[in-house]
Write the structure tokens for this entry.
Amino acid sequence: MALLEVRNLQARVEDKEILRGLDLTVKAGEVHAIMGPNGSGKSTLSYVLAGKSDYEVTGGTATLEGEDLLELEPDERAAKGLFLAFQYPIEIPGVASMTFLRTAVNAVRKKRGDEELSTPDFLRFVREKAKELNIHQDMLKRPVNVGFSGGEKKRNEILQMSLLEPKMCVLDETDSGLDIDALKIVADGVNRLRAKNRGFLVITHYQRLLDHIVPDVVHVMAKGKIVRTGGPELAHELEAKGYAAYENAA
Amino acid sequence: MNAEVKMMRTAAETQYADALGSLPATGAIRDLRAKALSDFIEKGLPHRRVEEWKYTDLRVLMREMAPLADRPDASAIAEAKKNGVLANIGAREITFVNGAFAAELSNLKGLEKGLSISTLADALAKDPMLPQLLAGLNPSKYDAVYALNTAALNEGVVIDVAAGAQITKPIHIRHIVTGTKPVSVFGRVFVKAGKKSQATIVQSHSGPDAVAYQTNTVLQLSVADDAELDVVRVQAEGDKAIHLSMMIGAAGAKSRFRSFTLTTGASVSRHTVPFAFAGKDIRASISGATLLRHKQHADMTLEVDHALPGGESRELFKTVLDDETKGVFQGLIIVRPDAQKTDGRMMSAALLLGESAEMDNKPELEIFADDVQCAHGATTGALDDDLMFYLRARGIPKKEAESLLIQSFFGEAIEQIENEKIRDAVMLRAGKWLAERSVK
């Protein structure tokens, strides 16, 4: 069974059709990349999968391990194992990072039938994962993402991803706003999480990220659907030729 | 013929005039009481055409006066013993049950050097100047709550912190109402903080749910030069109560004053804070968090008056409104001509959770000096959808996600409390409110 199965997915924001019949299958252990011009609907796909209420699904299906995702609340999707790394991680003033992480980890564990982590166990767990991502303890003492640099915010997303132990990770333009060093740290973090029971959907505008997170499959998205699918070499072709051919097609 | 329009007296006004008029008039405060009662009889309860009470029409909200409370019997004392709030803050407790001083629930033993605590009656017997002091700390114009409180002046406590005394143990004045019958309860607290003294006063109000009792308390604060005074108030009255209160303060040069009020109780409440900057270079912070549910109505009204130069005032109020509640914040900062270099900042933020909740914000500045920095702001908003989505995308269920955001909203105000134990206890009470909240 496929891990993530998307069939003829259609969605809109207000009156604007954005996804127009998108098909996608990600098997466990695979890393898929979705590339495409601005406005092709890449971010919308990630939000629709995660359950953002501004988007109205007008047709099609999306399942995670055979279970209908579209019927679930965002937190239920997360508990089932879907994780969205945001393109623009939001600042939450007044909510301490540690409180946030602990609430999230324990909520997900509870839903999955695992025992909640005690404070010392949780602290140990966070420290270990934070260290791998070069996240300083001081950062975790601040409110969520408040005063974080672009790179820190993205690393924090990967930290959350590793703490929540998802099955299906969707990374929405995780490379945007990152310099090469930050990009490497983020990519290493993702690569460490690659596993045969876990799938990735890496959404990006540029091929650069895919030098570090090497995908198994590359899709090209244009005007709300997948218009071409190939291997990693497709990313290089797009880098060389650009998206012009796709912006007029489909 | 007399063409003057005379407003009809409401039942409550007549009942107040009768009940307070028949109280035995004793000793030194007789004149004070008589004057207050005649003021009340003339002017009555405020209504919506009185500017300061525009959003809290007391004539409508308080149709009847509940009968004056009897002196508490043993069962009332026993009930009060169980029902206080903020029990674990390591404070010296002074307790009033149904308005009467309860010696058995108060600790007046082993007072620190420089600290004197007396019941109002004892203090009046000792100090012939006290009525004048009390009368001097009054609102700038007629206020029905103050007039009624003064007309009923009988029970209370006088806390005197001598010059230079550093009282580290907080003094907790508890106003506890008991029983199942609606009663009217009055209370007066006078705190005199001497020069260079330091003290922390906690005032709490609690009582039974489902009983339409009425409380009226006035807290008067005289803060001398270079003194440092902290006040933390917790208004956790029963859910059918009407709570009327005032905190009237006057601060001397270079004094430091902080106050915080947590409001979670009463069906109708009004807290009025006239605070005078009566010396140079005073720093004062007046803050609060108000958490409302069902059909509660809570009014917070401030009048911060800078008369002399160099004052710094900070007011931060957070109001959370669930269901069909109504919140009122009126904040007036006055900067008089001599109050140059005043730095005043007032902020009232409201979070609307209920679709039929309403917040009325009225911040005002009256500035008569030219070299000042004053700012005020008022915001009203709902929980941010993007923040909610971010939290929920991390697996946090709706109610918990809302709780995290609501807590972060009011937490900023609670953070203003200096004393850590008290701050934690207040946070715990606010957390309890959140836990009881049902998610729509």
Remarks:
- The first strand of chain B starts at residue 92 and ends at 97.
- Chain B is about 25% helix and 35% strand.
- The interface with chain A takes residues 385-387, 389-398, 400-401, 404-405, 407-409, 411-412 of chain B (CB under 8 Å).
- The mean pLDDT of chain B is 95.
